[in-house]
Amino acid sequence: MKRIRIWIKYLTLMEQFITISFLVMIIFLLFFFTFIPNNVDSFVNDQLYEYIHSSQNDYISRVIFGQGSYSNDGSDVSHFLYSKNTHLYLSEYDPSGLAGQALGLIDPDIEEAIFDNTIEINDTSVVYTIRQIDDSFNLVSIVKNDYRNAMRSALANSVVNVTTVMVVVIYSFLSLWVFSLIRPLNIIKNYIDKLRKGDKATLSLNRHDEIGEVADALVDMSDELTKQSRIREEMIQNISHDLKTPIATIKSYSESIKDGIYPYDTLEKSVDVIIEHADRLEKKVYSLITFNKLGYLVDDLPEGDNLNMVDVIQDAILAATVLRRDIKIETDLQEVYFHGDRESWLIVVENLLDNAIRYAKSLVKITLTPEELTIFDDGELMDKDRIEKLFKPYEMGNKGKFGLGLSIVKRVTDTYGYKAVGENMSDGVIFRIIKPKAKKIKKKEGKKVAEENNEDKKSV
């Protein structure tokens, strides 16, 4: 069975369809040659005896009880009235001409109400029925097996024709359905092959089923990858330029100082320029390293909130106050604990605070409640397109640097189960870090905890 499953996995859809069709055909033939003949024979026998019984009823009512004259009307059934007292046949109605051959082989003296049976006459089967009319008379009715053979042949042909037509119709619909699946899948495969080779490719399938959804998803993915690739290339160029400038400045200033020349008035001021560009270079490299490192961040901490966010926010504020001294930073902090690593959350707050200070006009406000952490700035409102792409890597605002700060925020919050949201307010922009809702404690457990606390108070 395992080998069969492995073999099926390596078949194409067309090969699978052909294999399934072959198996269905074999099952159909087995069904046709085993199940149908037996059931047809049983059905024909039942119908034949029912036909004889019906003819007997008509014969009894018309001939024996004198309710009318009996005529053949094309019937092949022969009727013989037998007297159980004299053991003689009193009347005969023999359109089949079987009396001379069949009556000598039939025992008409039976006690059953109706007796059905078959005899052989010269290698030919004859079907007969003996029916008890009353205590003195039995009616013997005979019909040749040719009638049964004709009925069986007609019924078998009808069954075969109907079944064949149904199989052909179903097979045709299945064929069309399979081809309707194979064709778009081949189109999708060719589309992917072209993309892999770097060629331009278009994919348009007018389908609204799962295949159409896959095709649309592939197109969207291709567009997104192309866009991300373009943004990444631009980002690399920008990074190269941003790194090149401070390096060139540091190098030129250092060489000038070595030669005894002070490019920026005095030695101290020239060294300050070198230090400033070294700091810029350090921040850029640190952002890249942080973004790459947080890509592997895993929440392996014990469950529960273990980090005092007030301390984290205050440390971030101390580091950010030197960025723009003209910006007022207000805080409204409750003692709230977050789940996660201190370094990761410090990076999140620093990035959000740095972003707020960069765009603010005069005010940045930080609020911490048990539900969320918010950082507000009174800068210009964001465009709708900007809001939708806030947390994507390499997406920069008009004053952005690398486009990595908010994507770092997104990675950390997602890892620890928090939600990061940026939105416009009437007078500025706000970023929210929303805490996940705490699991509700069951009433019984809460009641038990309260009772334990009461016990502790009493003991104290």
Q: Which radius of gyration do the C-alpha atoms yield? A: 48 Å
Would you state the CATH class of the largest domain? Alpha Beta
CATH architecture of the largest domain: 2-Layer Sandwich
Helix share of residues? 55-70%
How many alpha or pi helices? Answer: 11
Low-confidence residue ranges: 440-450, 452-460
Number of separate structural domains? 3
Q: What is the assigned CATH homologous superfamily of the largest domain?
A: Histidine kinase-like ATPase, C-terminal domain
Work out the number of β strands.
12
Side by side, the strands of the main sheet go: 2-1-5-4-3
Looking at the structure, what is the overall shape?
A: rod-shaped
Coarse structural class: alpha+beta
> What share of residues are in beta strands?
15-25%
- How far apart are the termini? 71 Å
Major sheet summary line: 5 strands, antiparallel
Your description of this structure?
This protein is α+β, with helices and mostly antiparallel strands and 460 residues long. The chain folds into three domains: 44-153, Beta-Lactamase; 210-294, Signal transduction histidine kinase, dimerisation/phosphotransfer (DHp) domain (Helix Hairpins, Orthogonal Bundle), CATH 1.10.287; 307-434, Histidine kinase-like ATPase, C-terminal domain (Heat Shock Protein 90). The chain is 56% helix and 15% strand. The protein is built from eleven helices and twelve strands. The chain has a five-stranded antiparallel beta sheet. Strands 7-9-10-12-11 form a five-stranded mixed beta sheet. Strands 6-8 form a two-stranded antiparallel ribbon. α2 runs antiparallel to α4 (145-197), α5 runs antiparallel to α6 and α8 (342-359) runs antiparallel to α10 (405-415). The longest helix is centred in the middle third of the chain and has 53 residues, at 145-197. It is rod-shaped, with a radius of gyration of 48 Å. The protein starts with a helix and ends with a helix. Residues 440-450 and 452-460 have low confidence and may be disordered.
